[in-house]
Every structure is written in C-alpha cells, then in structure tokens.
Write a structure and sequence with these properties.
The structure is a single chain. This protein is an alpha+beta fold. Among the domains are: 196 residues, Glutamine Phosphoribosylpyrophosphate, subunit 1, domain 1, CATH 3.60.20; 218 residues, HUPs (Rossmann fold, 3-Layer(aba) Sandwich). It has 24 helices and 18 strands. The strands form 5 sheets. It has a 6-stranded antiparallel beta sheet with strand order 3-4-5-6-10-11. A 5-stranded parallel beta sheet has the order 16-13-12-17-18, with helices on both faces. It has a 3-stranded antiparallel beta sheet with strand order 8-7-9. Helix 6 links the parallel strand 12 and strand 13. Helix 4 packs antiparallel against helix 24, helix 6 packs parallel to helix 7 and helix 10 crosses helix 15. The protein is globular. The protein starts with 11 loop residues before the first strand and ends in an 8-residue tail after the last helix.
C-alpha cells in the first residue's frame, strides 16, 4: 500500500507496528529534511503519528509547548500534533492552521484517530472491511491493494460524476470506501468507530465594521498573513503565476519575503474561449514576473501535449476525475520538479472566497429579457443562447436547479440518455447535493455553496492530485481557515461592485502593490478548449469510449445509443457539453486502466 503512494513522497519510507495498529508513510521531505522522518512521537512515545501536510503555525505552537516542558526530538512541524494531544486530546486539531491528513495512534488508550484539515486540502480515505477494522490511506489507489476491501462500483457516484466532473465527498467511486470529510475526525476504539467534526478557531470573531474601507483593510491583513505563513519551508518555493489577480497577489507577497522565487505559467494555442475570450495569458504572466523579480518559466503546450498526459491525468485523479484544467497544473508541477522544486503556491480559492466567478455578477437579479427563453435544458453553459434569455430561464428554476445551472455540467435528462436503463435503477438525482439551499435564496447563499462544495471537491482536489503526481506540494493560501472565516462574513457588495466588478474588496486591498492592468483585468481562469478538441483532434477518444468493446459497454453502464447521444451533445450549437462527454471518456479510461470489480 505504501508503495502505491511513492509519487506523493519519494524521499523516505517509515513504518510502525504497535499492538493492533500498523502504519506506513512515504515522505516528501520539506521541513527538517534530515531529521523529520516518520513516524513521529510524543514525549513518552505513547503517541505515534503518521501525517501528510504542513502545520503553518508550528513555530508558535512549538514555543508554547516547550514553555510547558515538552521536549522535541525533531524540527518537523508535525511533531506538535503528538505533544498537543497530551493537553487537548481529540480537540488538538482545532489549534492547527494547516493542511493535513493525520493518523494518530494512542497506545495506552488503544485508540486510532484519523483527522483531516478544515478546508479539505489533503485527502484521507478509509474502509471498514470487518467489525472494528479500519484501513486508511491518502489515496484510493493504495486501499485497492488491501485484499479484503470490497471493490464494488458505487453506481450513485458514477451517476453524479458527469454532473460535477468529480465524485462528491464523502462518497467515492467504490461503495465500501469513503473520504473522511474535511474538518472531521474518525475515532476508532474498542471495536467501534465514531465520526465527529471539529471547529475552526481562526478569525471567528465578527468584523468590527462592515464599512467598505474596513473590509478592504481586513482582507489585506488576512490574505498577507496566510501567504507569509505558507512560506514555511526548508526547500525552495515556486508559485503559479497566470497573470491574473489571484496568483499575482500570492506571487507578489511571496517575492517580497523570499530571496528567490520561481514562477510558472502555461502558454498554449490561443483559441477563443466562450467564458473569457482568448486563452493564452503567458505574456501577461511574464510581465508580472518581471515586475516582482521572479525567475519565470513559461511552459508551452499544445493539444497534443495534453493528449500525451491523459494517462497521467487519469492515474493521478485516483478515481474518475475530469476537470480538464488539471492538465495545466500537471504540466506546471512537472516543470517545477524538473528544476528541483517541491513546493508551489497557488491562487486557488480567491474566486470562492471573494466572489470571482463570472455568474456572480448576475446573482443579485436584474431585469431579465425572457422573451427568447429557450425550452428544455438550460444552464450558464448555453453560450449559443442570448444572455438575457439564458438568465431568464435560470431565474425560473428552483434554487437547487439554479445552483446546478450556474456552475455544473450534465443535466439529469442528458445522463438518462447516456446511461443504461437498469444501471439507473434506484439512483437519486444529483441535485440532492444542493438541498441545503432554501426556497428563498440570497446571492451569498450560492457563493457559500461554492465555498463549501465546489472549492474542496474540485479546486483543492485538482491542486493536490496533479501536483503530487510529480512529488510537488501545492499550497493554497486562500484556503487558509482564517481567510475562509473572513470570507463568510462578507456581504455581496464587498464581492461584487455595483458596476459588476468581481472580487471588489480583494482588488482594492492589493491595488497599491499590483500593476494597474492586473487589478483591472477581468476574471480569466485556465480554460482548456475541450469542446473544440473533442470535435476535432480528439474525436477518436469519443469513438473509443462508446465503442461496443469499451469498458463502459462491457460493464453495461451505457445505453446502446449512447455514442449517438454523445455526438449530438457535442455538436449542440446552443450548449457546451464537452466536459460532460469528457467525463465519460475519463470514466472509460479509468475502467480500462485497471478496474476489475463490478457494480451489482
């Protein structure tokens, strides 16, 4: 099992057997390179720890623990977890500012504690093959090597996948394997398991004022503190740099504090993207890098480059995963590793925290010209439909369907045409994931939904899996618990200005340290032209996915005419369906690359 995770940590391996507990770790050494090998121990070696991640407030916690008489054996940030247990027990995780998946064995209590960070940056999966038995790992690929785990396919997860491009946690692609929810513990003791949440103690106080000026100052403070704390490292650090606002903020702050910073951007064929116009931002990124004094790397890729990376993309998605922008992160991580870097900072999370997605400017509701509102399936992806008609159609939907229409992909009716009839029996609609939205929904409710659901499941998963594919640690300062806590206090006007400008407070907060063109630049994002490629150079992937001998057909997952349905969806002139079909391609590829279970 540990061997399956060597890409996540190729630097050293450690094991421990203690009573009923057995654990192992494949380590990526970033802090205390020489002395921080795992497992780590408490003062009496009664507490044993394996963990993946970083504890960014480790220096402060260590000072407090040493003042209380604790003796540290290493300079590893993770060792504070062992010592904190002696003071706070299971509540220790409330004191950690960081990203982590941790397994803590308390020998004299014969208790195992599995814990996952508050934002959900680091993955942790588990299964219970027998009463009182728990098997856990950072990836499903490792759990699949444990012989007693049932690998029956989770039909509900397969159904949900084309709606979201990922399997919503805590479910996984296998019925018997679950993701430990973010901000939760799983406690295993005396043959019983208990799942419980822990609280965010960072920046939970209310804002002193909701005045625009105060919010801007507080935004500046929490973001700067988050970036600087995430520079904790004994190895050099790099940063993604797209040329847009979010990564420019992170890279600019980092460059001021570090002696050297490598920055990375992607440049590729400059196709027009329906969301944001032309796709290539590499020139803007290079200009920003010159201003902040970073050593910049512009990585040129093509459709063929990404086609060649699909095998890696599928493998390191771990379970079916189809967020095509992950191909860009994969390329950057590869380039970073080639120049010797193990850590990359990312601007992910600013859109969810501070209101950056293009549809957020429409959430407050405006006069909608619904005279041309189309019939049938309508979402924000209907770029062949005038914007007024699109918005009118979305406004007419209940909140749960609106949440889908703003942000997501395959509709229930579209999936019903792609999947075999008996495969669908007894499945629940994917819109159930939006049941937390009430009947009367304010704009910030949709943004909160993105923070709680989309951000951890898509953005943080993508960053972790695709950087770790090349043994690089991705760090997202905008995922810091203090930043997320601050973001939840913001009102809509702090995020979207009256003129529709997105991330209003964030832009103002850093206007003095960024070039004017960066502050004024609209949201762009890294958007892979998947619809164009699937209709042209990648069309053979569509044919192979729906061929009679494909994995999807052999397992009886798709309908006999799914291929015709898929091609009709791809060539729909009103609606972009490329990512829905890419999901089916990646699901088939995942099956072909080693799934030998069943779905019955």
């Amino acid at each position: 099992m540990v061997g399956a995770l060597r890409h996540r940590g190729p630097d050293s391996v450690g094991f421990c057997r203690a009573g009923e507990f057995g654990g192992g770790m494949s380590r990526l050494s970033i802090n205390d390179i020489a002395g921080g090998n795992q497992p780590l121990y408490g003062d009496r070696q009664n507490v044993v720890l394996f963990y993946n991640g970083e504890i960014y407030n480790y220096p402060e916690l260590r000072r407090k623990l040493e003042a209380k008489g604790h003796t540290f054996r290493t300079h590893s940030d993770g060792e504070v977890i062992c010592h904190l247990y002696e003071h706070y027990g299971e509540d220790l995780f409330e004191h950690l500012d960081g990203m982590f998946a941790a397994a803590l064995w308390v020998a004299d209590e014969r208790k195992l504690i599995l814990a996952r960070d508050l934002p959900g940056e680091k993955p942790l999966y588990y299964s219970e093959p027998g009463p009182g038995e728990v098997v856990f790992a950072s990836e499903i690929s490792a759990l699949r090597r444990f012989p007693e785990i049932d690998l029956t396919l989770n039909r509900q997860a397969v159904w949900d996948f084309p709606t979201f491009l990922w399997v919503p946690e805590p479910a996984t692609i296998f019925s018997a394997i679950k993701a430990l929810p973010r901000g939760h513990l799983l406690v295993v003791q005396a043959g019983a398991t208990k799942l419980k949440a822990y609280q965010n103690k960072f920046n939970i106080q209310p804002l002193e004022s909701l005045s625009d000026d105060f919010v801007v100052r507080e935004t500046r403070r929490v973001v700067e503190e988050a970036v600087r704390s995430r520079l904790l490292s004994d190895v050099p650090i790099g940063s993604f740099l797209s040329g847009g606002l979010d990564s420019s903020i992170v890279a600019t702050i980092a460059a001021r504090d570090l002696e050297k910073l490598d920055t990375f951007s992607i440049g590729f064929e400059d196709l027009h993207d329906p969301y944001h116009g032309n796709a290539d931002e590499s020139v803007a990124a290079a200009q920003t890098a010159k201003l902040i004094g970073s050593k910049h790397h512009s990585i040129r890729v093509t459709a063929d480059t990404f086609r060649g990376e699909l095998a890696q993309f599928c493998r390191h998605g771990d379970q079916p995963f189809a967020v095509s922008s992950g191909l860009g992160i994969l390329a950057v991580a590869h380039a970073a590793r080639q120049v010797g870097l193990k850590v990359l900072l990312s601007g992910d999370g600013a859109d969810e925290a501070f209101g950056g997605y293009s549809w957020y400017s429409y959430l407050a509701g405006r006069d909608r010209d619904g005279s041309a509102a189309p019939q049938g399936v309508v979402s924000f992806q209907n770029f062949g439909v005038p914007i007024g008609a699109r918005l009118a159609a979305i406004d007419a939907l209940p909140p749960q369907a609106q949440a889908w229409a703003w942000h997501y992909y395959a509709h229930e009716d579209e999936k019903a045409s792609l999947f075999a009839g008996d495969f669908q029996d007894g499945l629940m609609p994917s819109l159930r994931h939006f049941d937390t939205l009430g009947r009367r929904t304010a704009p910030v409710d949709f943004i909160d939904q993105d923070r709680e659901f989309y951000f951890p499941n898509e953005m943080l998963t993508k960053l972790d899996r695709m950087t770790m594919a090349y043994s690089v640690e991705g760090r997202a300062p905008f995922a810091a618990p203090a930043v997320l806590s601050h973001a939840r206090k913001l009102q809509y006007r702090h995020m979207v200005a009256p003129d529709g400008t997105l991330k209003h407070a964030l832009r103002r907060a850093f206007a003095d340290i960024l070039p004017e063109e960066v502050v004024a630049r609209p949201k762009h994002g890294f958007n892979v032209p998947i619809d164009h490629w699937l209709k042209n150079g990648w069309s053979d992937l569509v044919d192979a996915t729906f061929a009679p001998d494909s994995g999807l057909n052999r397992l009886g997952i798709i309908s006999p005419n799914a291929g015709q349905v898929a091609k009709a969806m791809l060539h729909d002139k009103q609606r972009l369906n490329g990512h829905s079909i890419f999901c089916m391609i990646m699901l088939n590829d995942w099956i072909e690359r080693g799934f030998h279970g069943n779905h019955r």
